[in-house]
Amino acid sequence: MRRSIATAGAVLLGLVALTPGAAPGAPSTPDPGLSPAEKAAQSVGISVTAKAAPGKKPAGPNPFLALLPEGSKADYSGWARYMSEQAAKKAQAKLRAQAAPGARAAASPLLADEDEPDGTRGANDNPASAQRINGFGTAANQNSKLRILGQLDPEAVAVETVAANAEDDGSIPLAGDTGIGESRGGIETSAEIGDGPHGSAGSGSGDFDFYRVQAEAGEVLTVQTATPTGELDTIAAVYSADGELLVGNDDFGGELDSRVTYRVPAAGTFYVLVSGFFALPADPNDSGSGEGAGSEGPYSVTITAGEADQDFFAVKLRAGDVIGSTVKGAATYLTVYDTVPREVHGSDQDASFIFPAESPLPGGGNATTDYVATEAGWHYVGVSSGDGNYDVTVEAYRPTLQGDRPNQTLFLDFDGARVNTAIGGWGGPGVRQLSPLAAFLAQWGLTRDQEDELIDAIVASVSESIKHDLAEAGLNGKFKLKILNSRDHADPWGQANVSRIVVGGTIEESGVPTIGIAESIDPGNFATEETALVLLDVLSEPTGPETSLNTYMTSASDRVAFVGQAVGNVTAHEAGHFFGNWHTDNTSEHVNLMDSGGANYQNLYGVGPDGVGGTADDPDVDFGDDVFSAEEGFVGTEDTLGRIVFGVTS
């Protein structure tokens, strides 16, 4: 959908050694049922489903918030575009409110100008050489708002206009030679998707245009398409010489045109692809291996290879500081590195619309990031992917519950509830009554007499994941969370600092086609009274689907233990969202409670290597370090435990 981990901003990402959030369970695989081309697209974050028209809200629940049964069918591209549009409106509304008569004047930010002279690069191009900024932070004598003004100065590459490739140029062996890296630095050409022998007027398998380029280690290969006329919705991608899909992009900057940047790790030959959504070759060495023609029409493409400029700025944070950043101007990639330093949130999009209204974190730029510091020390804000002046806003806050406010309470409601399913990005029809947990017992082979035992198991699973583990992590000695449930406690919903998760109901009752969904993603936990759903119809379907718990139960299963563990994990996942976490990659080797939906549900449920739930080899799935979900467009390592542990601070 957006971009792969290999980006211009990700200068140190390949050096990161991940710490798993849990012991590996069953092997991870891409979404089942996808074609080879769709699997390749999904691996670099290109959405494979039909998209909402520009300016329109996508159908269905927001996949950034939802644990979807079939993640590959989610309109990630449409939602990213929609959230960017809404984030800009949200930022403008915030500015109008600040300027309204009687409004409290906003404090002036600390202003920092980039020291690197205009027209040069290399002085602050990585965290080790970052320009240090003093006076920013959350301490009493510091300014918690920062504005950084600077300029990106990539290598000036001469771009030559060249004729279009001769058809058939639909594979790596047939690629047109651009001369980049040999006789020129960049090209611009105009061509058409659909005019080749495999377009809709030919074989119909899909028309692809390939371009051959040479690049040196450290250079950044940039591909930018434009479609001023026609119906073409482009995809751009870069392949290695042996046919590996390295990076891809569908929509960029809120538009249907595509932009790819790829930092070359070693000198070699690379192949740029331009095609129409959605069409990728199953085999990039075979021009007839497409799985159907996508959109078609004329386009122009600019391809360059040269030295990029990226700028880093060091800010000193305290453990528990919640920082948000947004960039305007020429830069389109924004990132945060921690004290290691490792990239912990890189972005070329603005998804800040997903934050709750109570969140003070900034948005409204080309790209927005957020991070919760787990250690005190120097952290690094980086900008890249552009040419010209940029304007970065960085703001730091302390967790909202810090101080004299009561503890956060998480209420697990097993009795069914009336819920407004039209809130946020849920897309439901309005207020609906959801059925209780008891209505699903028989579908798991459990009796009514086992309900109390199952509730005990779910509460124990949730408590272990988002209370005991986080307290024992040692990151925050003031971490406190009270977990209540509808069987043992009076319903506290509606009281201060109470968030709830309704465990019950169905897709039909709610009108929301998901397994689980949260109200927001809230780094810092600024909104302490939110709702999430864990629907139980998909989880209790008859044996067969990967999403059903029954698929993993046999006569060897401890059914109460497995259902309690699995439902508890899904519940912790949803709590993880409104306590500040984005989705992690469900195809990585690391199993994490924040893994996205669509594939490898056996890992989230805690099914061991024997493939049977409720047996001795079932792993304990926890929060921890993992890479962001590629489909959601973020880059880096997300510490899903650390984001929660400081958001719930007494």
Provide structural commentary:
The protein contains 7 helices and 30 strands. The protein has a 6-stranded mixed beta sheet, covered by helices on one side. Helix 3 (about 450-470) packs across helix 5. It has 3 domains: about 15-85 and about 405-645, no CATH class; about 110-155 and about 310-395, Jelly Rolls; about 160-305, Jelly Rolls, CATH 2.60.120.380. Residues about 1-30 have low confidence and may be disordered. The longest helix is centred in the first third of the chain and has 24 residues, at about 75-100. The protein is about 15% helix and about 25% strand. The protein has about 650 residues and is α+β, with helices and mostly antiparallel strands.
Taking strands numbered 1, 2, ... along the chain, how are they ordered across the largest sheet? 1-27-28-26-22-25
The tally of domains stands at 3
H/I helix tally: 7
Compute the gyration radius: what is it?
25 Å
Cα shape: globular
Largest sheet: 6 strands, mixed
Helix content: 10-25%
End-to-end separation in angstroms reads 39 Å
